[in-house]
Amino acid sequence: MAILQRARRKEEAADREVVRPPSQLGQAIPIPDNDPLLGYLLGVGAPVEVEKVTLDSPALDEMRAAGVHLIVPLVSQGELIGTLNLGRRLSDQPYSTDDRKLLAGLASQVAPAIRVAQLVRQQEAEAKQRERIEQELRVASLIQQTLLPKELPHLAGWEIEAYYQSARAVGGDIYDFIPLQDGRMGLVIGDVTDKGVPAALVMATTRTTLRTMATQTYDPGEVLARANESLVPEIPPAMFVTCFYGVLNPATGDIVYANAGHNLPYVRTSGGVVEMRATGMPLGLMTGMNYEVAHARLNPGETVLLTSDGIVESHDGAGDMFGFPRLIDIVTRYEAGQDLISIILDQLDLFRGEDGEQEDDVTMVTIKRTSSAVESAAAFGEDPDEIASFALDSSPGSEREAMVRVAAIAAGLGVQGERLERLKTAVSEAAMNACEHGNKGNPNLPIEVSVLADSSKILVRIKDHGGGRSIPDPVIPNLEAKLAGEQSPRGWGLFLIEKMVDAMRTSTDDQYHTIELEMSRRED
Amino acid sequence: MPGTPFSAVTRSKGDSTVIDLTGDIDRNTKDDLEAAYNQAAANGPVILNFTDVDYINSTGIAVIVALLARARADSRPLRACGLSDHYREIFQITRLADFMAIYDDEPAALAVE
């Protein structure tokens, strides 16, 4: 007797096939969906003698050739789920009426049982698939959460807000703030095509690449062009990244920017909404791209809105898109003092309706110039306010990072030009001393840098773990002695710091050593 | 945060030698700077061109002091040009400027008799 095998899943129904014992009937014979035998077997619903059927059916011909004599259809709930194919009886007698009744009875018992087994197997496979997808989403989400900024930059005279909500399928949105020298800040918002882990990995690569390029040049077009050259060989051919990159000078409100095919940012000015236009191809598609560079200036009270396409491409119940006009309308109408991001989110919820699903990541960044740096000075009380604080490990290069980050903050507080240069040198030297002397170069010991300000001055404190021991009085460097080889050529650090800033103070307890640098916020 | 990598390129200008400096000057600069000085033609003045230098820290000052000591031992004038206002001030504060003449640019440094 032949045994039966049924296609595992409904989608595979085209491959209905039978399996015969290898010794007698050889391999399974599939019955294609368009073969009339299918309809015939379903219609008869009882054992069919191959000899008595006249159908123009390739499958039937094949069965006949393979020695099949009796086909017993297995039908469950009106669906043919397989057949029992029998060869000639061992006695060579034709199948009797009783035989056929027995087989029909067997088929009616077996069919539902097989159907149930098929469904169970199908559900197990689907559950495994779901679990795999869930796991992937967790990984993608983790990558993304790890790479998005943990905190927003503090720039005096500016309010920066960011919102990110991943879609269930995690869309690969990215935003970033990159501290640059001279107090400037790089702004990134981008969107990777595709979703899930591949998108998250491309997002991670893009973020690192942009951070690297941003420290090489202030020219945003050049940053994007270099990032593009680097990304083309790195990311899969079908994927690309749209990305806006701008360099903000907090002291002047200038933003120089370029755009690799990303949604245009909007500036809300007193005269209405202005698009920040600049043309350029998305990153990662092809090499040799150029990116137009454009410039905008934010005056006090003005706000830039950066978005990912998850907002304008949201759909309502009827399938209509949210679209740019609605977004522009919101930006036009919101009033000073209102929170633009909340308003957009509320409008988006209203638009999507109750059952609306978030299809893509939604990312927004707003950058508002609240006042010019000089005006903001009046807002400080007599006690210095802490503007920012951060920790760095005691490894080579940390002194530069301390310098760049403090400079960004100081520039926003009105320390400019030569005085900014002097403060940078002092911070770099103080941080280097803290790493090398205070923490003795132990990379596991952090230095802590904090910036404070009141209306007239800025204070930079750098704390290391060099407390509890006496600090030798610094030798005043004597250049003649150094040139004559009577003094080490080194030993300039503390001397320079003292000369660079308006005042320098140090304090030591049993654990920490702290140096405080003071600089006036305005020219004398 | 990595800085800008340092390089020093030596070229002759008549009797003088110009060393074009690029990148950050710190303690890592020592070997490259001395190698560039070694390539200088015998005897004439050596001009350090700082036009493409954005960052000098105290360990870099120490490297320049050591080079200045060497040039003095060799009886060779060492000059500087292309310094930003900020680093010109630092050369004055450290008194390097007392032993190393500072000029605005290369032509000015070369024009000295």
3D architecture notes:
The complex is a heterodimer of chains A (524) and B (113). Chain A folds into three domains: 3-121, GAF domain (Beta-Lactamase), CATH 3.30.450; 148-371, PPM-type phosphatase domain (Phosphatase 2c, domain 1), CATH 3.60.40; 376-520, Heat Shock Protein 90 (2-Layer Sandwich), CATH 3.30.565.10. In chain A, helix 3 runs parallel beside helix 4 and helix 9 packs antiparallel against helix 10. Chain A is built from twelve helices and 20 strands. By secondary structure, chain A is α+β, with helices and mostly antiparallel strands. Chain A has helices at residues 36-44, 58-66, 97-147, 196-214, 220-231, 323-333, 340-352, 373-377, 398-412, 417-438, 479-483, 493-500, and strands at residues 3-5, 17-19, 48-49, 70-76, 79-86, 158-165, 173-179, 185-192, 241-249, 254-260, 266-269, 272-275, 294-297, 303-307, 362-369, 385-393, 446-453, 457-464, 503-508, 513-520. The longest helix of chain A has 51 residues, at 97-147. In chain B, 40% of the residues are buried. The model of chain B has no long low-confidence stretch (mean pLDDT 92). Chain B has a five-stranded mixed beta sheet with strand order 1-2-3-4-5. Chain B has a single domain (7-103), classed as STAS domain (Transcription Regulator spoIIAA), CATH 3.30.750. In chain B, strand 3, helix 2 (58-73) and strand 4 form a beta-alpha-beta unit. Chain B starts with 6 loop residues before the first strand and ends with a helix. Chain B is an alpha/beta fold and 113 residues long. Chain B has helices at 30-38, 58-73, 85-93, 96-99, 106-110; strands spanning 7-13, 16-25, 46-56, 78-81, 101-103.
Largest sheet of chain A: 5 strands, antiparallel
Radius of gyration of chain B: 13 Å
What's the level 1 CATH class of chain B? Answer: Alpha Beta
Q: Tell me the number of strands of chain B.
A: 5
Number of separate helices of chain B:
5
When the domains of chain B are counted, the total is: 1
The overall average pLDDT of chain B, rounded, is: 92
Distance between the termini of chain B: 43 Å
Topology, number of strands of chain A = 20
Order of helices and strands of chain B: EEHEHEHHEH
State the share of residues found in helices of chain B, binned by percent.
25-40%
Let me know the CATH homologous superfamily of the largest domain in chain A: PPM-type phosphatase domain
Percent helix of chain A: 25-40%
Could you say what the CATH architecture of the largest domain in chain A is?
A: 4-Layer Sandwich
Query: What fraction strand of chain A?
Result: 15-25%
Question: Residue-averaged pLDDT of chain A, rounded?
Answer: 84
